[in-house]
Amino acid sequence: MFHALRGSVDGLVVIPRALWTYRQRMVDAAREAQLPAIFGYRDTVEMGALMSYGPDLIDVFRRGATYVDKIIKGAKPADLPIQQPTKFELVINVKAASALNISIPPALLSRADEVVE
User: Fold this and answer.
1) d(CA 116, CA 77)
2) Is 101 left (phi over 0), alpha (psi -120 to 50) or beta?
3) d(CA 53, CA 101)
4) Are 42 and 26 in contact (CB under 8 A)?
């Protein structure tokens, strides 16, 4: 899938929503083509992607639960403010970096929310 890109790009930024259903295939294709890729959700790092940076989904769901609670208690959904994610997380897979022969700077590793080995 990505083999044709090899040599003409330095890496991939995969937009999370558009390809959610195919994320494992995207991770595998990037790995097979030896292309570093950053995804929007942490589960892709656990699947073998180099890194992810995106909203903390646990925080998003927790905040959504407060909306459900307010609605159950009688609040009108139209009266509730629109919310956006406020907490983001950076997850780095050092095993994938090693396989791609990429050295992750220590400063970046220290800023990561999680480092997967």
Assistant:
1) 39
2) left
3) 21
4) no
Place of tokens 């899938």: 1
Tokens of 4: 């044709």
How confident is the model over 42-96, as pLDDT tens digits? 999 999 999 999 999 899 999 999 999 999 999 999 999 998 999 999 999 999 9
Write out the two tokens for 30.
């990037």
For residue 22, what are the CA distances in angstroms to 26, 29, 44?
Answer: 6, 10, 11
Q: Are 46 and 95 in contact (CB under 8 A)?
A: no
Closest CA to 79 of 70, 87, 88: 70
Contact 77, 36 (CB under 8 A): no
Rounded-to-integer distance, Cα 85 and Cα 103, Å: 30
Residue 9 carries which side chain, given as an amino acid letter?
V
